[in-house]
Amino acid sequence: MTDILFLAEILVAVLLIIGAAFTLIGSYGLLKLDQPMKRLHAPTKASTLGVGSLLLAAMIHAFATGDGSLHEMLVMAFLFVTAPISGNFIAKVHLHRQRGGAELPAPPEEETWATYAEK
Amino acid sequence: MALQMTRRLLPHPLLTTLLIVVWCLLINDITLGTMVFGAILGLLIPMATRAYWPDRPRIRNPLRLVSYLGLVIWDIIVANVQVAMIVLFKRNADMAPNWVVIPLELRTPEAITMLAGTITLTPGTVSADLSADGRALLVHALDAPDPDAVRDDIKSRYERRLKEIFE
User: Fold this and answer.
1) Which ranges does the record mark as transmembrane (chain A) (predicted)?
2) Is the minimum CB–CB distance between B131 and chain A shorter than 8 Å?
């Protein structure tokens, strides 16, 4: 029994370190990258693998110490659903600020991008 | 007649099931009481929001959906490590950030949403916009010297599978 607890503790510790490392790299990327669109890539990373492994660690810890909880699954699910949406909104704001600057490739068949559509 | 009744009472059976599961997870307890209250919420919420979501999405292949989720989680882990390496060890000037246009074969809004979400969650690519007619996605890649390769990769890896699941 104590062996299993010990193994669980090692697993939790490793997951915590992985999660913390990826969150740190995400924040570092936010500082280091030099264009708004490039910067957007850093936080999407921190919120997936970083927070994901932190939550997994919390879940394993809860189950190993007796009172298992599945709340963390819910946190992960909500995060995975909402992260792309907020990322998309930030990208759209960037597109609006770029309006007129011909930096974008045009969509096929003489269409416009929805952000720039007039209707 | 009976079919119409169930359609009216249960516009989205899958959403109802999901709401019951989410409610039980929120309470962190599976008892009859929480399940009954979850079922009440699962009946009321889809009815109240039916006007905003008139069509029922068809999931043709639920097993494929599970294997798709597994694939996406694996890709998230692999791509995370790759992007971490780029952030840590590649100079800003050496990166090749690029816009990628992905012509879509998917037509159902649910499938396109899943594809756009997948693209954003796998690091290194962020979906930024949809064309006005809904037939192309605008994606930004952090480090893609060859945008066509990114496009082909996304089409063959994710879009093909989503097409099998939803359409």
Assistant:
1) 6-25, 46-64, 70-91
2) yes
